[in-house]
């Protein structure tokens, strides 16, 4: 069975990197660019923020990315813990490697970029 992954992004620098370089890789250097994905596809940004315990409301959804395109995930699928006052409960995985772009959904315009 094919697994699909999405990433929810709120950092404008990461959105710009995705558009310019067409790769998905966290811009957070304090975590050594550890990049988190989910197997849950949320079309509602409030649900994504709550279930993934995101520190900020996402502006974009990246993906879906098939498991064939995903690099090694050093953190396997697990349940998201409550954090930042959010409830958690979604599924998350993490990788240190870039994932090459397959699409960028813009919540404001309800359209794919590129």
Number of self-contained structural domains: 1
**CATH fold description:** ADP-ribosylation fold
Major sheet summary line:
4 strands, antiparallel
- Annotated CATH architecture: Alpha-Beta Barrel
Our Rg estimate from Cα atoms comes to 13 Å
Structural class category = alpha+beta
Order of helices and strands: EHEEHEEEEEE
Tally of strands: 9
Question: What strand line-up does the widest sheet have?
Answer: 1-4-8-9
Number of helices: 2
* Strand-residue proportion: 25-35%
Describe this structure in words.
The protein is α+β, with helices and mostly antiparallel strands. The protein has a single domain (4-113), classed as ADP-ribosylation fold, CATH 3.20.170. It contains two helices and nine strands; from the N terminus they run βαββαββββββ. A hairpin with a 4-residue loop joins strand 8 and strand 9 (111-113).
Topology:
Blueprint: E1 4-9, H1 12-21, E2 23-24, E3 35-37, H2 45-51, E4 60-66, E5 75-79, E6 91-95, E7 99-100, E8 104-106, E9 111-113
Antiparallel strand pairs: 1-4, 2-7, 3-6, 4-8, 5-6, 8-9
Question: TL;DR of this structure?
Answer:
This protein is an alpha+beta fold and 114 residues long.
Keywords:
114 residues, alpha+beta, ADP-ribosylation fold, four-stranded antiparallel sheet, three-stranded antiparallel sheet, 2 helices, 9 strands, 32% strand
